[in-house]
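User: Quick sanity check before I run a bigger batch. Here is a single chain. Can you write out its predicted 3D structure?
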Amino acid sequence: MSPGKGQMSPLLLPKASVPTPKGPHGPAGPPSPRMTPQGPGSKKRSRRHQRFMERRALLEQKGLLRPRRRLGTQGLPGGLSNVTPRGWKVPKLGLSVSPPSAFPDSIVGRCSGTSVGNTVTGVQPCLPRPNKYVAVDCEMVGTGPRGRQSELARCSIVSYDGDVIYDKYVLPLLPVVDFRTRWSGITKRHMESAIPFRAAQEEILKILKDKIVVGHAIHNDFQALKYFHPKERTRDTSRIPLLNQRAGLPPGANASLKSLARHLLQKKIQVGCKGHSSVEDARTAMELYRLVEVPWEAELAHSQPPRPPSPTDPITDSHQYMDDQYWPQDLMVGTL
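Assistant: Done. Predicted structure follows.
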């Protein structure tokens, strides 16, 4: 309707121009999907993720959870990320190093690869932590007709560092006919403090569970324990061609623990007529294993299919246990 007499016509003003934001390469396009407002479901997920990160930070602060490694910060433990041991060539990609051990040589020994002289090539994912390794040695006595049946009379288990984890005398199921003291070091007096076989077996198998077990001719020890350990978690130092090669022996030779210790460790064991020490033998087997740990594990990694992580392995990351239903109330106070 046109304006009547005495009425003013509305003044038409030009539309205000809104400046168009420009990017580094011209006018900006439509808003990014990340900047698009989300619905209430995304806010709920965001709050849940925030709780998750706060709880993870709290666990890391209390030392109950290993801090995450950020991208671009992988390297050797203990502040040695930019230091490569002398004589070792390590590729930049695919290198992952496990937590530091008590021994300096474990900084390199935790990573597997192919050894060529003093150079490691083809580095594989990290080896298990040292606390996943144990070495075992058993001493047997003779039972049954003429003492020809071997039964467990002592068992010793040591850690990766050689510390004694277990060392007890064991009472065989059958009466002892031959103590074999010259080799076993067992006498009748030791049986006075021995524990029953079934009790010892239960204690020992708890220690060996989910461990990588090292030993020399270890099938004899497992037979005395009436136990079968998974092959992929067994390291028998009597079946390592690398040790025979270093000792100057034929690759297929069945070298004794005493012979390998003399050639490679420059130490004498099993001397005298008082018998063997199962603690000394277990420590020696672990020392021999550590000599060739890196190249041997690399060889096994190429010959064996990858094993899925054990559900009981502490390195398995279980994020679902950070949910509210699993979170202790005393830790939730003051964190949310």
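The mean pLDDT is 74.

User: Great, the batch can go ahead then.
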